[in-house]
Design goal:
The protein is built from nine helices and 18 strands. With about 400 residues, it is an alpha/beta fold. It folds into two domains: about 300 residues, Aminopeptidase (3-Layer(aba) Sandwich); about 100 residues, Roll (Urease, subunit C, domain 1), CATH 2.30.40.10. The strands form four sheets. The chain has an eight-stranded mixed sheet, with helices on both faces. It has a four-stranded mixed sheet with strand order 13-12-11-14, with no helix packed on it. A four-stranded antiparallel sheet has the order 15-16-17-18, with no helix packed on it. The protein binds zinc ion. Zinc ion (ZN) binds next to loops.
C-alpha cells in the first residue's frame, strides 16, 4: 500500500483503535496502570517499571517490535499535557489488533524496536500541573537531573541509545501557522544542538522524518500544521538527546476549532506517529531533502481566546479606540475530572496584528472599564451601544442580548 493510501485508511479507521476509556484532555496515573495491567496479558508487549516519581507513583515503559531501529517515545513530562499519553495507548491498541493493516504492522514491527514511556510525570498529571511534585519543570532538568523523573528518562535513554526520540507535549491554544489566523493543531520541531542552530546528521534525520509527518498531516489539515520555534534550550531533553546522537522529534498538540476536549488533535498525533514510523521503516528516507523542513511555516503566538476590536473608551474628556484581548485559563474542577475557565484581559490597545479564536468588531460600541485600563481581573464587564444592545462578558465568554430600553 502506498503511504498516502495508508494514512487515509488509518485516518478513516482510527475509531477502531481509540482507547475510548481514556480522555484526551485529562489522564491520571491510575488509568494508565490499569491499561498496562491489561497489556501484560499480551505476549508481544513487555511492561517494565523504571522507577517511581517523587510521590511514589510508578513510571513504566512498554516495549514491542523486534526491529533494529530503536525508538523511544515519552509523553506527559508536563503533567497538564496529556493528549499524547492517550495517543500512545491508541497506537499500542493499533499494534495489538489483527486486521487489514497487518502488512504495515509486521513491516514496522520488523524494522523498529519501540519503547514508550507514557506519562513521565504522574505527580504533575494528578494535580494537572506542568511541574513535578517539587514544581520542577522536568524539561528544564536534563542537565542537572535533580528530579527522579528526569533521571529515569535520562538513564533509560543512555542505556537504550535509541536512534529516535519522540518528545510529546501539548502547546497552548494561541499558536498560529505563520502569520495567518489558522491555529496550529500540531507543531513540530527538530531541536537544535546549539544557539547557532547547527544542522548535523542527527538533526538532519529529525528534519527528514518531520517533513514526512507534515506531509501526512497536511492531507487532512493542510492549514493547521506548523514548525515550532527552534531557539536552543540547553536544559531540555530534546536538545540534549540530539547532542547525544538521538534524532529527536518534538510533537506539540495544539488547538483545533471545535475540539475543546482535544479528541481531534489526539487523532492527529496517532497519524503523525504512525506516519513517522512508516517513514523510519523505509530505508530510503535518508534521501529526503531535509531543507524542506524549513518550508513548514513557523508558528507564532497571534491568538487570543476572545478579541474585541475597535471599542470606544471615554476617559477624562478623551475618546480612545481600543482592542481587548482575553485569554482563558483552563482549570480543573474540584471533582478533578472536568474543567472550568477563568479569564483575564491579557492585553489592551492596538491588537490589529492579532486574531481571536472568537472575535467581534465592536466599532461604535462603548466600553465601561475602571481606569487604569490594565485591570487583570476585569474580565467581566458590559459593552453598550445606545442602550439598545448589550454585550455581557462573563468569565471571558461573550453574551449578546438586546435590551431595547
Ligand atoms: Zn510541554
Amino acid at each position: 500500500m502506498n503511504s498516502i493510501r495508508l494514512y487515509k485508511n488509518l485516518f478513516d479507521q482510527y475509531e477502531k483503535y481509540r482507547e475510548t476509556t481514556l480522555n484526551s484532555d485529562i489522564v491520571k496515573h491510575s488509568e494508565i496502570t490499569q491499561k498496562l495491567d491489561n497489556l501484560k496479558q499480551k505476549n508481544n508487549f513487555k511492561i517494565s517499571q523504571l522507577g517511581k516519581s517523587v510521590e511514589g507513583r510508578e513510571i513504566f515503559s512498554v516495549e514491542f517490535g523486534q526491529g533494529k531501529t530503536k525508538i523511544l517515545a515519552w509523553s506527559q513530562m508536563h503533567g497538564d499535557e496529556p493528549t499524547a499519553t492517550a495517543a500512545l495507548f491508541d497506537i499500542i491498541s493499533f499494534f495489538s489488533t489483527d486486521d487489514s493493516f497487518n502488512d504495515f504492522r509486521s513491516f514496522a514491527l520488523n524494522k523498529i524496536n519501540f519503547h514508550f514511556i507514557p506519562m513521565l510525570n504522574p505527580d504533575g498529571a494528578e494535580k494537572y500541573k506542568r511541574g513535578n511534585a517539587f514544581n520542577i519543570d522536568i524539561n528544564r532538568d536534563a542537565l542537572r537531573k535533580v528530579s527522579f523523573e528526569s533521571k529515569i528518562l535520562w538513564n533509560y535513554a543512555e542505556k537504550l541509545q535509541p536512534d529516535f526520540g519522540f518528545n510529546l507535549h501539548d502547546q497552548n491554544s494561541y499558536y498560529t501557522v505563520g502569520r495567518t489566523n489558522n491555529p496550529a493543531a500540531i507543531s513540530l520541531l527538530a531541536p537544535p544542538i546549539n544557539h547557532v542552530k547547527s544542522i548535523d546528521y542527527t538533526r538532519e534525520q529529525s528534519m527528514q522524518v518531520i517533513y514526512k509527518i507534515f506531509e501526512a498531516l497536511s492531507i487532512f489539515v493542510p492549514d493547521n500544521i506548523a514548525r515550532y520555534s527552534d531557539e536552543h534550550e540547553p536544559r531540555s531533553f530534546g536538545d540534549n538527546f540530539v547532542k547525544n546522537k538521538i534524532s529527536s522529534i518534538l510533537i506539540e498538540s495544539g488547538f483545533y476549532k471545535n475540539d475543546k476536549s482535544k479528541n481531534f488533535v489526539r487523532k492527529l498525533n496517532f497519524i503523525a506517529m504512525l506516519a513517522a514510523f512508516d517513514t523510519i521503516s523505509q530505508i530510503n528516507f535518508t534521501k529526503i531533502d531535509y531543507t524542506k523542513y524549513f518550508n513548514i511555516p513557523e508558528n507564532q503566538q497571534l491568538l487570543f481566546d476572545l478579541l474585541l476590536r475597535n471599542l470606544s473608551f471615554k476617559c477624562e474628556g478623551n475618546n480612545f479606540t481600543i482592542d481587548i484581548g482575553i485569554k482563558r485559563e483552563k482549570m480543573l474542577d474540584k471533582n478533578e475530572k472536568t474543567f472550568n475557565y477563568k479569564s483575564k484581559i491579557a492585553e489592551i490597545g492596538d491588537l490589529s496584528i492579532y486574531y481571536g479564536i472568537e472575535e467581534f468588531d465592536l466599532k461604535g460600541y462603548e466600553i465601561n472599564l475602571p481606569t487604569p485600563l490594565c485591570v487583570e481581573d476585569a474580565a467581566d464587564f458590559k459593552i453598550l451601544k445606545n442602550g439598545i444592545m448589550e454585550f455581557e462578558i462573563l468569565n471571558g465568554f461573550i453574551n449578546a442580548k438586546e435590551v431595547k430600553k
